[in-house]
Write a structure and sequence with these properties.
With 378 residues, the chain is mainly beta. The protein is built from five helices and 24 strands. It has two domains: 1-34 and 56-272, Beta Barrel (Thrombin, subunit H); 273-370, Pdz3 Domain (Roll). A hairpin with a 4-residue loop joins β14 (228-230) and β15 (235-244).
Length: 378
């Protein structure tokens, strides 16, 4: 199998209660070489797919989406004084250069360079304008006009067996993006990643938790991270984030619905502070067997992970707790928790109602912090 030249950094992931080793389809770190080169915008809303010879639907999807897929290259200082270069993927959602990718693609970068997928790639300087590293999301801006864009679909409409297409700069290979196809294999997965570069979102143990993630058998390799997973209407339904090192045809992608609020906030108010609790949660109704939901609890946000030194940890929230109410508002699931937090401000004290693993209810006061953005320069 072809490998990128130089050294490659791979992140191991552990699926709860499964003996499987995984790595994030993340930045491929190479040393000593560069990639092969050199006003408010508009969004794409369901533009018809191009017609193709023979009527091949996959070809039409690729022709429609590929121009909006970009190479995201980062320069990073490494331990010991060396420097490395990471290669990931992103996709353009607004024609003036708003790009979505993974937080782990740009985290710790002292320089972000974006390359278009043209035959002669154009080069742009990138900067972070928003993100949510708890959920491995980043929004990058480049100064450009009239870029090709891709439409955002709905991950809520996905069904098992549905055909999808993944695009990205797999293995940092020269040339344009790689295209792979597959189906939706599972919905609502929870996986844990050992990510030493994760920073505040993971805490001291360096564990990144992905909740309610989509599993696909479309190949997702190092370098694919941040790229789009699209349906056969050419709409982004998920963001490619992880792939299996031990087994073929196992990839994981973040549902696009979970990213829409983060994208919208970055577009409307770049770098604006937002309220932060410091928990990764799942619905108590999730089918994940690792969730030990207290008997009789049928609504709430189940705490999978508490970020070290976060407001949640300082308030005494623990893994296995179920958050049922924040600031007097009912929390029925993780989406409801996100909506409540979106209405609150950093430094605000909020009453939080919990149900512990033993089924006992308790109340704590959380002093909300400011959500960490991807740690990248400028």
């Amino acid at each position: 199998m072809t490998r990128p030249t130089g050294r490659t950094l791979m992140r191991r992931l552990l699926v709860p209660l499964a003996v499987v080793s995984l790595f994030a389809g993340a930045c491929s770190f190479t040393y000593g070489s560069d990639p092969a080169t050199g006003q408010v915008g508009t969004r794409d809303v369901n533009v018809p797919l191009p017609s193709t010879a023979g009527g091949d639907r996959i070809v039409a999807v690729v022709q429609r989406v590929l121009p909006a897929v970009v190479n995201v290259t980062t320069d990073q200082f490494q331990p010991g004084g060396g420097s490395g270069q990471g290669v990931g993927t992103g996709f353009v959602v607004r024609s003036d250069g708003v790009i979505v990718t993974n937080c782990h693609v740009v985290e710790g970068a002292n320089k972000i360079t974006v390359y278009s997928s043209d035959d002669t790639p154009k080069q742009y300087a990138g900067r972070v304008i928003g993100g949510d590293c708890e959920h491995d999301l980043a929004v990058v801006k480049i100064d450009a006009k009239e870029l090709p864009t891709v439409a955002l679909g709905s991950s809520a409409d996905l069904v098992l067996g549905q055909r999808v297409v993944a695009l990205g700069y797999a293995l940092a290979l020269d040339g344009g993006p790689t295209v792979t196809t597959g189906i939706i294999s599972s919905l609502g997965r929870t996986i844990r990643a050992n990510d030493p570069n994760c920073g505040e979102a993971c805490g001291a143990n360096g564990t990144r938790v992905y909740a309610d993630i989509i599993q696909t058998d479309a190949a997702i390799n190092p370098g694919n991270s941040g790229g789009p997973l699209v349906n056969l209407q050419g709409q982004v339904v998920a963001i490619n984030s992880a792939g299996s090192a031990a087994a073929e045809n196992i990839g994981f992608s973040i549902p696009i619905d979970a990213a829409k609020d983060t994208i919208a906030q970055a577009e409307s108010d770049p770098l604006a502070p937002s309220a932060y609790m410091g928990v990764i949660t799942a619905a108590v109704t999730a089918t994940d067997v690792s969730l030990q939901v207290p008997p009789g609890v049928d609504a709430g946000a189940y705490v999978l992970n508490v970020v070290t030194k976060s407001p949640a940890e300082e308030a005494g929230i623990h893994e296995g707790d179920v958050i049922t109410r924040v600031d007097g508002q009912e929390v029925s699931d993780p989406d409801a928790l996100g909506k409540v937090l979106a209405e609150l401000e950093p430094d605000q004290d909020v009453a939080t109602e919990l149900i512990g693993p033993d089924g006992a209810s308790r109340n704590v006061t959380v002093t909300l912090g400011t959500r960490p953005l991807p740690n990248a320069l400028p």
